[in-house]
């Protein structure tokens, strides 16, 4: 899914095992979200996230929405926490290239209404390797 607003955009998808209620891994995933600097702190990111959460819940009946974010991006981490996301686990050196120092990622999640007990967002307190991710 893609949603553009003046000053920003969001790319997202749904993934997982749709018909496996035991795994509870059918979910929305934020691939990218960007808001231009001059449009920040005006509710655009909330609007975009609300859109993906609504699609995940109402159209796909997903269990949760997840995203990856650099721990050093404190403004984004704080925003996601304000929106109801929590750090589910840490992915070791998720962001890496030959040009920059490798950095971990927070795998943050927010349960959708289907997950009434919020099981799918309960922190694992684990640090995993990128190849251990179920979905990439």
Fold blueprint:
Layout: E1 2-5, E2 8-15, E3 27-35, H1 44-59, E4 64-69, H2 74-82, E5 86-95, E6 103-111, E7 127-128
Parallel strand pairs: 3-4, 5-7
Antiparallel strand pairs: 1-2, 2-3, 4-6, 5-6
Main beta-sheet annotation: 7 strands, mixed
Name the helix and strand elements from N-terminus to C-terminus, one letter apiece.
Answer: EEEHEHEEE
- Give the count of helical stretches: 2
Query: Strand-residue fraction?
Result: 35-45%
**Structure class:** alpha/beta
Structure overview:
The chain is of the alpha/beta class and 136 residues long. It contains two helices and seven strands; from the N terminus they run E-E-E-H-E-H-E-E-E. The chain has helices spanning 44-59, 74-82; strands spanning 2-5, 8-15, 27-35, 64-69, 86-95, 103-111, 127-128. Strand 1 (2-5) and strand 2 form a beta hairpin. It is globular and about 40 Å long. The model has no long low-confidence stretch (mean pLDDT 92).
Features:
136 residues; seven-stranded mixed beta sheet; 35% strand
Describe the structure in brief.
The protein is of the alpha/beta class and 136 residues long.
